[in-house]
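Researcher: First entry.
Model:
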Amino acid sequence: MHANKTSPAKQKEGRDISVDMYPFIRKYKDGSIERFLRSPFVLASPDQGGNRGVATRDVVVDKATGVSVRLFLPSRAADTAGRNRLPLVIYVHGGSFCTESAFGRTYHRYATSLAASAGALVVSVEYRLAPEFPRPAAYDDAWAALQWAASSSDPWLNEFLDEGWKDSSRKTRAGKTAVGKCFGPLGKRRIFVFTESDDDDTKTSHNG
């Protein structure tokens, strides 16, 4: 994650600050919001060759809210086509619920690495950010992504997922952040991975 060049002491001329959470966000009294931590946007691509052998695709999972996910499909899927052997990872990016994006370079790279290393189909959630969308919006969006995945309506999910990913006897859960706690009741899903809510974009917590 990268901060822009705005100084922590500098504010836009003629605008009063109401909330200053530098280096994350700054909210002005006129209601406008300035975000500092952001990574460059990365386009999804079906080409596995240029992305560590991982194809990516964006899907809108809730038309009412516009919430979407980015799917990460490793090259291993080519060897398992028709046999449904890939596990599923639902991934919720870090950023304290107010910064960053599943489509930004930081978390695109992380999810790519996760898919390639684990040989799993990763669903990375592009949830709505606070303060424009305060909690529980992010939780609702993560739920929407999970419900979409459970419906198995997507062709990648239908073709490549392990048939037992919904089996409670084969579950693995990970996470201890607020988002992780949100998924506590979802004991009948196979794998969850959540980042810590800090600026370490490579850290994960595991609580099996």
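Researcher: Second entry.
Model:
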Amino acid sequence: MTLLFDAVMTTIFLKMMPYLTPLVFALSVLMFADKLIVLVYSATGFRK
């Protein structure tokens, strides 16, 4: 059961990889940009 499950998950993972990688990358960049913007805002003391 576990072996079959692992095989299925690996296949799905490998099939999804080309789509997943840019998505994860974009998400991490977005998170980093968000943190950076907050940092700049607090550094300049600008409040909405």
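Model: Note on the second entry: The radius of gyration is 19 Å.
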